[in-house]
């Protein structure tokens, strides 16, 4: 099947490469000229484990191509996937639909008038967007020549390649049989590989809602376990034992019960706020979603306070060492990263405070976001270098290699021995034996 994908971000690119690997002929379209020229050299524009190799393989085989031209990509495609961003409005937090509607309007000029095309929305979009996209396309194309469906994405950043090939479910929001048939053909090779994967067919509006409901539920689960972590710290229980005990109940399940500094990334914060916005538009008060949003914002502030509290107040020029800047491990993405938000809170609190930072993948993206603090940030090349002269070491992203930090040399390199471990990566007993004060999450 010839598939056109509009948008080569964290959703569009892994999806395009995955579909090419399944045997489809994929054209990825993006307005960003520099991104497309990098991709045209067979090189990835973002970090995702396994993506570079898979892209090179399919690019060399001619299964995937890249273009800035909507016409080149869309003409002759049986399926056009919209995978552009829907960033939150800075004030209202509603999803900004500009890019989706621009893509729909532009693509409509090139859809075949003499054959049938399915337009699939993979961007996370407010409920009812499918209707609007359909109206925009119908201005140029006869109604019986196209269908607009909702095909929500459930890939996690950092695991996008793995998740693409091992989905739990594929949700299709389609109102016609013809559209369902195209999607079934698209995913047929994947369904063969994953007999346990269910292809769930629902109405377009239900499908759009499933995406918001899933992300908001997972965010709520994380917020809940974080509140339980606070509770455990006060009561002397251990959050891992509590989560293990809860997770064994099949109705609860063990995943998304890892406590941390709060959820972040480009999806959960945005989608919970957008759901709340849509609810209020419909005169509904979604109190649980609101509590999750507010509680998570407060948690970021609380984590910054933990770091500031650990510092010796007498120190005039405090130095904070930071391990991890990405919003989670396995990605270079710093958008709405709790690590970055905590770091910015800490920098904002005291103009004499400086930080030393390291992340295995996210240094370039972090630099762009920290430009206004440039003179107060030292970019290090290793976790050990971060420790040099630091008063407190804060672990903010759960990169597995941070577990290997040589605590003895960290103790020698640091000016003072304090650890605030927001990901429970370091060994508390070892740290304390070396004279550190150690504060973890949900453990005494
Ligand atoms: C999330 C969803 O998991 C995907 O299914 C969805 O496709 C994606 O959003 C999207 O809408 O595009 P992602 O944002 O990549 O994926 O990241 P997650 O792995 O879900 O983590 C989100 C945040 O929650 C991170 O800050 C992470 O550190 C935090 N988290 C996650 C926890 O604090 N504890 C956990 O147990 C799990």
From TrEMBL:
UniProt binding sites for substrate: 154-157, 211, 256-260, 264, 328
EC number: 1.1.1.22
Pathway: Nucleotide-sugar biosynthesis; UDP-alpha-D-glucuronate biosynthesis; UDP-alpha-D-glucuronate from UDP-alpha-D-glucose: step 1/1
An MF annotation (GO) of this entry: UDP-glucose 6-dehydrogenase activity
Source organism superkingdom: Bacteria
Domain UDP-glucose/GDP-mannose dehydrogenase C-terminal: 321-428
Keywords: NAD, Oxidoreductase
InterPro entries: 6-PGluconate_DH-like_C_sf, NAD(P)-bd_dom_sf, UDP-Glc/GDP-Man, UDP-Glc/GDP-Man_DH_C, UDP-Glc/GDP-Man_DH_C_sf, UDP-Glc/GDP-Man_DH_dimer, UDP-Glc/GDP-Man_DH_N, UDPglc_DH_bac
Active site, renumbered: 267 (nucleophile)
Biological process according to GO: polysaccharide biosynthetic process
Entries under Gene3D superfamilies matching the protein: Cytochrome c1, transmembrane anchor, C-terminal, NAD(P)-binding Rossmann-like Domain
Binding site for NAD(+): 30, 35, 86, 124, 157, 270, 335
Reaction(s) catalysed by this chain's protein: UDP-alpha-D-glucose + 2 NAD(+) + H2O = UDP-alpha-D-glucuronate + 2 NADH + 3 H(+)
Family: Belongs to the UDP-glucose/GDP-mannose dehydrogenase family.
Name this polypeptide is given: UDP-glucose 6-dehydrogenase
Annotated source species: Candidatus Anaerobiospirillum pullicola
